[in-house]
Design goal:
The complex is a heterodimer.
Chain A lengths: L4 H6 L4 H24 L2 H18 L19 E3 L3 H18 L2 E3 L6 E3 L3 H15 L3 H13 L6 H10 L10 H15 L7 H4 L4 E3 L2 H13 L4 H16 L2 H10 L1 H4 L3 H6 L4 H37 L8 H9 L1 H18 L3 H15 L22 H39 L10 H8 L1
Helix pairs in contact in A: 2-15, 3-11, 3-12, 3-15, 4-5, 4-6, 5-8, 11-15, 11-16, 12-15, 12-17, 15-16, 15-17, 15-19, 17-18, 17-19
Chain B lengths: L1 H27 L1 H4 L7 H12 L1 H7 L9 H9 L4 H29 L6 H26 L2 H18 L19 H21 L3
Classes of the chains: A mainly alpha, B mainly alpha.
Keywords (chain A): Membrane, Transmembrane, Transmembrane helix
């Protein structure tokens, strides 16, 4: 049915016709907004940067290297340990290195902050180490040099292995409670957000996997993740980084389009409601932003879908839609909704600064690259597989994403309200309108 | 001279002051993001390159904001005053603030007991900040969209975090790797982009 939306404005329709009219108007506005996005240079920059970033990051994951573990392999990868002794030994090894180099990584406000201690504070840190290990700093340094010395002639990978295998044993009778107290003292010296906080050190000591663990991991990869879901989770990890920042530019640009074209007043005079205009614009931007994500995810997933067949597993063909739908859609929704809200409220580009800071803080503020979702905007999962761990953290992720989904809806509703207020006022929310052209004209 | 002073004051009052305030916020909250205590050369360079460089994006990218409004743009074009004369004081103002901010950070790190060569770090940081800012400046000049300017500068910064090797001599974050010789390339790049941006504004019609 072809509907002339003009009649709708004149109020000559019946209730059912009004409903149809609204739908048609929404459809027309939605398509118009999609076309507007396609005309925007910012959008193409977004697509190019997104594709390049994903290709550069995901290219290190080779489908050919994915093999079933066999007994007798020298290395099966690594896994986080929950063993208290290993946690203590691994954390103390980090502390010895940090004290030696007098360089401590902290994330007090979500951003990386390198901390250097004064000579007096270093002495206190050395004392803490002595209490934990029963050894002086000189002895610990010597042991450390001896350990790393054996790897000095080799490449980067081996040096990483050297760092991973470096452990500093605790003295006899030293309990985990004593260790927790000692680490609190270190935190006091170094400041907030260091690796010596309980939440951090309990999730960052890795140990090499055994064959049995590797086998279990591989089986979970095939049965629980159907291979493709695990790969797309990794894709979501990288994509989530870009999507925390880039959509803001598209959103701000879209929200400022009327102002730039000086058609705000014209738009205000149109019969369509504020909700219809804002929501159709928002959804059009959302669809256009998500479209390249889904297409790239589909293309990236294909080799893994084929690989699953080689292992005799039926890959999840729809993983490219379902996983990003949960993982990335709420993120893009909130970033875009925030851009709309702040831009509508301020008629400025202020949202760019706030969102870039938020995105970077969320990215650098993660204490681990796998899990620890909390309420972080960027949900990290920088690993291929770990299905068991994912199962235990799934609920936390859903809560996180649900929170941002709701927040996005609230932001859009608030944008509609602000739009309607501005429409009633007939101008922007600022009381003072500066006749900039006038002052410029006079000066010139 | 009075005319250019008036133009620049008007620009600051109407358009530029939020960016100056943001720069001020970046300084005020710096203690939460970076440490000024006993920094060695690479750590001091890291503070300048990873944190203070943002001032370049904040200060140089929005210099064409008034002209996003086509009426102002056309008004400027219709006047006898050359446009570069309108833009140059803005660039100089941004440059002055950039140097002051860099000086302030170098001073804070020295006061915190840092062990580095202040002059060399200051020279390198100023050129790097200017270069990053000029990318945003150029992008917003040729597209007449400040949003694209910010996007270009932020993307360039982000690319350098993992992909600096593809950018050769124009890569950022070189000083924290101990390479202090690339300041000439940054300065050259900034000069080309700034003059190219102004030239584009003179020639282009949006």
């Amino acid at each position: 049915m072809k509907i002339d939306v003009g009649y709708f404005a004149k109020g000559v329709w019946k209730k059912s016709e009004k409903k149809e009219g609204k739908k048609a108007m929404f459809g027309a506005l939605f398509l118009k907004e999609c076309r507007q996005v396609l005309k925007s240079l910012v959008y193409y920059i977004y697509v190019v940067v997104f594709v390049l970033f994903i290709n550069s990051q995901m290219s290190s994951e080779s489908v050919e290297e994915l093999q079933e573990p066999v007994p007798g392999q020298t290395y099966y990868g690594e896994t986080v340990t929950q063993d208290e002794t290993l946690i203590m030994e691994g954390t103390l090894a980090d502390l010895v290195q940090d004290v030696c180099h007098n360089s401590f990584a902290t994330y007090p406000l979500g951003f990386y902050k390198g901390v250097n201690l004064t000579a007096e504070e270093i002495e206190q840190a050395e004392e803490i180490l002595k209490n934990c290990t029963g050894k002086s700093m000189d002895e610990l340094k010597e042991e450390m040099e001896e350990h790393f010395g054996g790897y000095a002639q080799n490449g980067m990978e081996v040096r990483m292995e050297a760092a991973a295998s470096y452990r500093v044993p605790v003295k006899e009778g030293f309990t985990y409670e004593d260790f927790e107290t000692a680490m609190e003292e270190v935190c006091h010296l170094v400041g907030r957000g260091s690796f010596y906080e309980k939440e951090s050190y309990e999730n960052r000591v890795y140990v090499p996997m055994t064959y049995e663990q590797a086998r279990e991991e591989f089986d979970a990869l095939c049965t629980k993740d159907n291979l493709t879901r695990a790969y797309i989770r990794l894709f979501c990890d990288y994509a989530g980084i870009v999507l925390a920042i880039l959509p803001i530019f598209v959103g701000v640009s879209g929200a400022l389009r009327d102002k730039r074209a000086k058609v705000q007043q014209v738009m205000f005079s149109k019969p369509a409601s504020g909700a219809l205009i804002v929501v159709s614009r928002y959804l059009a931007n959302l669809v256009m932003l998500i479209l390249p994500v889904v297409i790239v995810a589909f293309l990236q997933q294909r080799p893994y879908y084929d690989k699953a067949k080689e292992f005799g597993v039926q890959g999840d063909m729809w993983a490219f839609l379902t996983v990003p739908g949960v993982w990335l859609l709420p993120e893009v929704m909130i970033v875009l909704a925030f851009a709309f809200l702040i831009t509508e409220l301020t008629d400025s580009i202020a949202a760019i600064f706030i969102q870039v800071a938020w995105g970077i803080a969320s990215l650098f503020g993660a204490s681990t690259l796998v899990g620890n979702f909390g309420l972080r905007l960027v949900a990290r999962w920088n690993t291929f597989g770990s299905a068991e761990l994912y199962d235990t953290l799934k609920e936390e992720l859903f809560l996180n994403r649900g929170y941002y989904f709701l927040l996005a809806v609230i932001c859009v509703l608030m944008t509609v309200i602000i739009y309607e207020i501005k429409r009633k006022m007939g101008t922007n929310l600022k009381r003072n309108h500066y006749p900039f052209e006038e002052s410029f004209g006079k000066a010139l | 001279m009075e005319k250019y002073k008036k133009l620049t004051v008007s620009f600051v009052k109407r358009q530029y002051y939020p960016h100056l305030l943001l720069t001020l916020l970046l300084i005020v909250f710096s203690g939460g993001f970076v440490s000024f205590k006993a920094l060695e050369e690479p750590q001091a360079a890291k503070v300048m390159e990873m944190y203070v460089t943002f001032t370049g994006i904040l200060l140089f990218t929005p210099l064409f904001m008034p002209e996003q409004d086509k009426e102002i743009w056309n008004l400027e074009r219709s006047k006898s005053t050359s446009m570069w004369k309108v833009y140059l004081p803005r660039v100089l103002l941004a440059l002055l603030v950039c140097v002051l901010v860099t000086l302030l950070f170098v001073g804070l790190m020295k006061k915190g007991g840092g062990h580095f060569h202040a002059g060399i770090l200051l020279r390198g940081a100023c050129c790097e900040i200017l270069f990053l800012g000029s990318i945003g400046f150029f992008a917003s000049a040729v597209t007449n969209q400040v949003v694209i300017g910010y996007m270009a500068a932020v993307v360039y910064y982000a690319v350098n975090i993992g992909g600096g090797k593809f950018l050769g001599r124009f890569a950022l974050f070189k000083m924290m790797q101990g390479e202090y010789g690339t300041w000439t390339y940054w300065l050259f790049g900034a000069a080309v982009l700034l003059s190219g941006g102004i030239l584009a504004r003179e020639k282009m019609r949006f």
